[in-house]
Amino acid sequence: MVVLNGAVAQTGSLVYSKALQRQISSLTQVALVQPGHRRAPVLTSAEPLGGACPDSAGAALRRLLHPGAAGQLQRRQPGGRAAHMLATRLPQALADQLLTAPGWALFSHGFEDGSEDLIALHLDGGPHDGHCGDILQAIWPVLREDTLRALAGETQAAVTSALLWTISKKTDAAVLVLDGAGQLLHCNESGRDMLDAGDLLSDSGGRLSCARPGETAGFYAAVAECARSRRGPATGPRELILFLEDRHSGMRLPVSLTRYRCGGADQPLVVAILPRQPDRRRIEMLAQKMGLSPCEARVAALIQLGLTNREAAHIAGLKEQTFNTYAKRVLAKMQVGGRAEMAQRLTWQASLGRAS
Questions:
Q1: Domain with CATH 3.30.450.20 in the chain
Q2: Chunked in runs of 10, what are the mean pLDDT values of the chain (356 residues)?
Q3: 170-274: which CATH topology?
Q4: Does the model's pTM come out above 0.70?
Q5: CATH topology (fold) of 280-351
Q6: Structural Rg of the chain based on CA atoms
Q7: What are the CA-CA distances from residue 160 to residues 8, 155, 163, 263 (Å)?
Q8: d(Cα 278, Cα 194) in Å, to the nearest integer?
């Protein structure tokens, strides 16, 4: 509910609003605005940037966009009841300035739904001071909508940015975004690692190929079918599961394909999510953090890979009997009932985030 050099908030946290500053700068460099009602978010333009508008504030902003027809702008008494209502939402120093400093002009603007905006301008003797009420009457309904839309959009942009950063940097699943023809449009870092390795899929200028050539046609057919699918009334977006063979291990791994339709886009996209085997070094690091010695952690990581004792002992440079002894210690220290449970726990932990 406050506007100074361009920002918003719900009692204290501020978000920048360029729309307000751009349109109102001819009248003042300091403006305070309370849109809607006492529980509405606060806009301000004199506070520093960098705060984040919470999602609840974004929802409130969106609700304020449709108050009905605008009424007349009314001048309010500086230092009066309306000024005190506005001051309750401000930092103390700014509230004191609004209530005691000269040069403030205060207005209210009503709407059909009964809500009312409070607008306080700090005038510095500029050429438009005498006409600020007439100017506000003409521009406020449109300016109000532009400002709220910009703020609501910035809130959503911040949420989207956080989600995209998490997908790109912190998840160990490979995420690929494809068009309906199967062309690669974007992928996260895990996806790029997986494509560069080429053990399941590889990328050549956006054209994907399966590690097993005979599977490539089926992959593109599945993507095309997913792109054509429609959302059911109760089931949500349709998901297709495709199994591809890993060239290195010979395992058949599931690929999840989901149709995604963004508002305003002409064509749907397909999001492919593929599990990645966590890096063995990360498994060892996590195992040590769970109380295992370096040698025990190496044994745990080899067990997690699904190797036989003989194969794992050979890789570890241990006798098979020695490896078995270490394996028993690992299970006891981790307090698990068997190797499958231990492998599942380590895989789950490692998949929570990429190694740093």
A1: 170-274
A2: 35 50 75 66 44 49 73 87 81 84 88 82 83 85 77 58 56 82 86 88 91 92 85 56 82 84 69 74 81 88 79 85 91 84 71 46
A3: Beta-Lactamase (3.30.450)
A4: no
A5: Arc Repressor Mutant, subunit A (1.10.10)
A6: 30
A7: 19, 9, 5, 14
A8: 11
